[in-house]
Write a structure and sequence with these properties.
The chain is an alpha/beta fold. It has 26 helices and 24 strands. The longest helix is centred in the middle third of the chain and has 32 residues. It binds pyridoxal-5'-phosphate (PLP).
């Protein structure tokens, strides 16, 4: 006994020592020296056998996935006698878990993608920006609607996030010099960024993907650059928007240089970082024509350089919505770029409709070796939008990182069935879950876990409603929810009540208010059947998106009517400040997940995949991923007009939003949905739907399968066990079919 105990202590100590990697850039916690050296040497290898993933936002909050913390908790490690280790442990266990560098689906996708690269040991590094004030915090007042609140956060205190040190002056941060053309002064000025590295460590702590976040908030940087480093998607002016895109794109080459990153492939996650391609082209010209290239180059030289550079670029387009495609006035850009850049843009970034604009989607479309959309339907739409590139546009359907989004309770269920052995490393294992349709034990366990998740969610909502009620006295915020004003005993929601969730960015095309188009019809369905329903809504609108904000207000304003007309059977609640942890609570705790975009504007959508991972059926317009995840009623419901994409308008014009038709279609299926949940003889069919999601949708709509498809575009040479696994995912599903 004594001996054993002693051995464990020693083992823990050695394990702990094995959790620190030292490097000239600093010491990092959570991985061994061997792992660090492996990753670093991959990224620095002469052969360039790695990829750089460039994204304006990365969503990877630590409260939904943090293997390093899990390891400490599992091993009951709470401190160490070594002061350095002790402080690492303290930070990991107690540091703030949010990294507010995301605004919505694009960022979450980036985070999930990088986690899967890490899990599958693919040599990738990411580049993004660090926003000192993140996106924004959302307060909601029933009379005002959304109030955006600036938030300060502390990267210094955040676990897994490190400020890189200067190897030559170890008590100073490493800074990278990034030139910006200042049109006002007609010369190039230097901006400076320090570099934060988030380690996206995998479940086994034996690989990581570094995310390099450029932080321009240094006093040495010009004030206009510093100001642009505060908020993600600051849209206070066009100038600001353009500058933020430049900060990302122009940072790519200098950052790669200073860290010795050799990746032959640059992956643009959306065109935001396309200025990096501009730099690659001018760099190519510089090498070919020498320092005075600016005067020497002809159009044909530029096109030739672009052709060469395109061999390095992979591009993912994420939306058919026009606002998602950066276009900037040429006159504005004249103040941001020197002559050759203007020439390059003039040749490669023309806007078809408006000769006074540069169109960055057009630019990214032209200069790449592979371009993909994010679902099959979106591919067809993108081809229609960009017919001149139709031949090269392919589909790689999005996924989500299963270990991030499957709730703890469901994970425990999956762990306890040998049929699913290895599911954490390999989500394709779930193809075997079909047999659970007939497995009583699994069905019972799943139901229990689900009940547990629903209770967690409903508890959160009930606590929140009461909290808001009490806060009236302390703050000037009027509680967002009508329910907070009711008698104390009328407030609480019940976890036995059918609960529908809807959470996403509030923007026009997502039509958050669609099912409330005709409240009388909606509530009469509920009162006729006498079945209670909870509707839980959440989501932020971009602070400058007035129509988006008014959608939130509509949800708040309609609550009382929904409650009264349904005689208290229907409770509609808005949960403020949507983030990853609220998302996880919702997608695992509800009974059905609602998605009501205007087809075909939801290129993929990912929250529905998160629900499917938890076995939860979707009720969705046949748009984005649901075209692939809907299996004739087996995994959920479809509704809405499914006009062929070649005739469907892409406009967000109110008249083209089809509210009347699509809401009517929802009211048609809604009684079936309610009955299938409440009627005892149909209940087993409901559990069937959940299991169908588990075996039909988890194996496909995960980021492991998705990155396997990306690997094909990256053309990486992989080690044989990695290669084998990637091949296996590739075989499982071809988005392109
Ligand atoms: C998944 C997620 C999104 C994206 O959801 P969509 O269905 O693609 O709109 C946005 N925000 C958060 C916090 C998420 O977790």
């Amino acid at each position: 006994m004594q001996n054993n105990y002693h051995n464990t202590l020693i083992e823990q100590k050695t394990n702990l020592k094995n959790m620190v990697a030292k490097s000239p850039f600093g010491n990092f916690f959570g991985i061994s020296q061997k792992t660090f050296d492996l990753v670093w040497s991959n990224l620095n290898a002469k052969d360039g056998n790695s990829a750089i993933y460039v994204s304006m936002e990365i969503g990877a909050d630590l409260d939904v996935f943090n293997p390093v913390k899990n390891y400490l908790l599992q091993n009951e490690i709470t401190d160490s006698s070594d002061p350095e280790l002790n402080s690492f442990i303290y930070k990991t266990l107690h540091g703030p878990p949010k990294i507010p560098n995301y605004g919505g689906g694009l960022g979450i996708l980036a985070g999930d993608t990088l986690k899967s690269f890490s899990a599958c040991k693919i040599p990738v590094a990411a580049i993004s920006l660090l926003y000192r004030k993140g996106y924004f915090s959302q307060l909601v007042d029933s009379k005002v609607g959304q109030i955006s609140w600036s938030m300060e956060w502390s990267p210094e205190k955040t676990p897994c996030l490190y400020l890189l040190k200067n190897p030559d002056q170890p008590n100073k941060p490493l800074t990278v010099e990034i030139p910006f053309f200042d049109g006002k002064k007609n010369k190039t000025v230097q901006a400076y960024a320090q570099i934060w590295m988030k380690l996206e460590v995998n479940e086994k702590l034996d690989f990581f993907v570094p995310e390099f976040l450029l932080d321009f908030s240094l006093p040495e940087s010009p004030e206009w650059v510093r100001n642009a480093s505060n908020h993600l998607y600051d849209s206070s002016s066009e100038q600001m928007k353009a500058l933020q895109r430049r900060m990302l794109g122009a940072g790519v080459m200098p950052l790669m240089d200073i860290l010795g990153l050799t990746a032959a492939t640059i992956h643009l996650n959306e065109q935001h970082g396309v200025v990096s391609v501009l730099n690659l082209i001018s760099d190519h010209l510089l090498h070919k024509f020498g320092v005075s290239y600016q005067e020497k180059v002809k159009d044909s030289d530029i096109l030739e350089a672009a052709e060469k550079v395109s061999q390095r670029v992979v591009y993912t387009i994420h939306t058919p919505v026009k606002a998602g495609h950066d276009r900037f006035d040429k006159s504005l850009y004249a103040g941001l770029s020197h002559t050759v850049c203007k020439k390059i843009l003039g040749l490669l970034a023309g806007d078809k409709d408006n000769p006074t604009l540069y169109n960055f989607t057009e630019f990214a479309m032209q200069v790449n070796r592979a371009v993909n959309s994010v679902s099959r339907l979106h591919r067809d739409v993108t081809k229609k939008q960009f017919p001149q590139y139709a031949d090269k546009i392919t589909a790689i359907t999005n996924g989500v990182h299963h270990l991030t989004w499957i709730s703890e309770a469901k994970a425990e269920v999956f762990d306890s069935f040998p049929e699913l052995k290895g599911w954490r490393q390999d989500p394709s294992v779930f193809t075997k879950a079909e047999s659970f349709l007939k497995n009583k034990k699994f069905r019972t366990y799943l139901e229990q876990a689900w009940r547990h998740d629903t209770e967690l969610l409903i508890q959160y909502v009930n606590d929140m409603l009461v909290l808001h009620r009490h806060q009236i006295e302390e703050t000037w915020i009027d509680p967002p929810n009508f329910l907070s004003h009711l008698h104390e005993e009328d407030i609480p929601l019940s976890p036995s009540v059918f609960t529908i969730g809807f959470a996403r960015r509030f923007s026009t095309y997502k039509r958050a208010d669609l099912i409330f188009e005709d409240v009388k019809t909606l509530t009469s369905i509920i009162t006729d059947l006498d079945y209670p329903v909870n509707f839980l809504f959440a989501g932020k609108a971009h602070p400058a998106d007035e129509p988006g904000k008014s959608l939130i207000k509509i949800i708040l304003d309609i609550q009382e009517e929904v409650y009264e007309l349904s005689k208290g059977l229907a409770k509609l609640v808005f949960i403020p400040n949507y983030d990853m942890s609220i998302a996880k609570l919702m997608v695992s705790g509800v009974h059905a997940w609602l998605n009501s975009p205007k087809r075909p504007l939801e290129a993929s959508g990912t929250s529905g995949m998160k629900a499917a991972m938890n076995g939860i059926p979707n009720i969705s317009i046949l748009d984005g991923w649901w075209m692939e995840g809907y299996h004739e009623g087996k995994t959920g419901w479809k509704f809405g007009i499914d006009t062929p994409v070649d005739t469907a308008p892409l406009s967000e014009d109110p008249a083209a939003l089809l509210y009347e038709q699509d809401s009517a279609s929802f009211y048609k299926i809604f009684p079936q949905v309610l009955k299938s949940f409440y009627e005892p003889k149909l209940k087993s069919n409901y559990i069937d739907k959940c299991i169908n999601n588990i075996f039909l949708n988890i194996p496909i709509f995960n980021t492991h399968r998705m990155i396997a498809e990306y690997c094909r575009n990256y053309g990486l040479t992989l080690q044989s066990p990695v290669e084998k696994k990637i091949r296996q995912f590739q075989k499982l599903y071809k988005s392109e079919n």
